[in-house]
Amino acid sequence: MTRPSRTMADTRRRRASTGRMMDEIMELARSLPLTRQVLADSLETATPAQMEFMLSWMNEELASRERSKRARLLKQAGLPGVKELDGYDWTPVRFPVDYGREALESLDFVANSEDVVLFGPPGTGKTHLAVALARKACVEGQPTRFFTAAGLVMRLLRASAEGRLDRELAAISKARLLVIDELGYVPVDEEGSRLLFQIVTNAYERQSVIYTTNIEFSGWGRVFGDPNMATAIVDRTVHHGRMIRFEGESYRRTHALMG
């Protein structure tokens, strides 16, 4: 009877000791970034089993960090729902002769700080495509922000009134990709135009902007209420940008429940 009791006691002690070591390791991990030289020295005496464990642990750590980063970027982006490129209907889309679907999906325009204008009638898939591209950018580790044009103007006006415009502009400037949706759906007043112009100026050659709009460039003066400011915005957009056209009937109208 003594031996089983002693064995159980030894097992409990080992478990308690293991538990204490696990707690100590977790506590140390909070404040101990890896030092390459210390790691190299440890690897010199590590057994194959120990190195296999470390390799597995580091891969899991990196994968966990990537998942956390993607989740953070997707949350910060403020995307209106989940839209993917997989299954997207490209039928209404008309690309420029020198630029196609493969290049757009590769997000090369983000890498090159170029702009994309998705132009066409409402309901033809412009916002869906913009959101899907923004989502892909987040998944690939690119900081992204999504705004409707009206929402962005209201956000900037509120920040200006509260004395934190510089901070708001600085936060937006950290994104590699901006999406300004529904440009032209709501007119912009003089102050709003000035603030929107500041966003475009800050982004020029440093960030990429995707615009969705149903207004030709020639009509942007009406949107901004200032032809000179509209001309300056169009000039920057055209310099490093491409227009992708959408044609056809509104998807919402053709699939509406109400006849």
Descriptive overview:
The chain has 259 residues and is of the alpha/beta class. It has 2 domains: 76 residues, no CATH class; 162 residues, 3-Layer(aba) Sandwich (Rossmann fold), CATH 3.40.50.300. The chain is built from 12 helices and 6 strands. The chain has a 6-stranded mixed sheet with strand order 1-6-2-5-4-3. α3 packs antiparallel against α6 and α9 runs parallel beside α11. The longest helix has 30 residues. The protein is elongated and about 90 Å long.
List the helices and strands and how they pair.
Layout (H helix, E strand, L loop, with lengths): L1 H29 L5 H10 L2 H30 L15 E2 L6 H5 L2 H4 L3 E5 L6 H14 L4 E5 H13 L3 H9 L3 E7 L6 H14 L4 E6 L6 H5 L2 H13 L1 E6 L4 H4 L5
Parallel strand pairs: 2-5, 2-6, 3-4, 4-5
Antiparallel strand pairs: 1-6
Helix pairs in contact: 3-6, 7-8, 7-9, 9-11
Task: Give a quick precis of the structure.
Helix content is 58%, strand content 12%. It is α/β, with parallel strands linked by helices and 259 residues long. The N and C termini lie far apart (85 Å).
Features:
Rossmann fold; 2 domains; alpha/beta; elongated; 12 helices; six-stranded mixed beta sheet; 259 residues
> What integer is the average pLDDT?
86
Could you name the CATH class of the largest domain?
Alpha Beta
Q: Would you give the CATH topology of the largest domain?
A: Rossmann fold
Query: Which structural class best describes the helix and strand composition?
Result: alpha/beta
Q: Calculate the terminal CA-CA distance, rounded to whole Å.
A: 85 Å
Low-confidence stretches: none
CATH architectural arrangement of the largest domain: 3-Layer(aba) Sandwich
State which percent range the strand residues make up: 5-15%
* Biggest sheet overview: 6 strands, mixed
CATH superfamily of the largest domain: P-loop containing nucleotide triphosphate hydrolases
The tally of domains stands at 2
Question: How many beta strands in the DSSP annotation?
Answer: 6
User: Per the principal axes of the C-alpha atoms, what is the gross shape?
Assistant: elongated
| Pattern of helices and strands | HHHEHHEHEHHEHEHHEH
Backbone CA Rg: 27 Å
Q: Helix content range of the residues, please? A: 55-70%
**For the largest beta sheet, what order do the strands appear in spatially?**
1-6-2-5-4-3
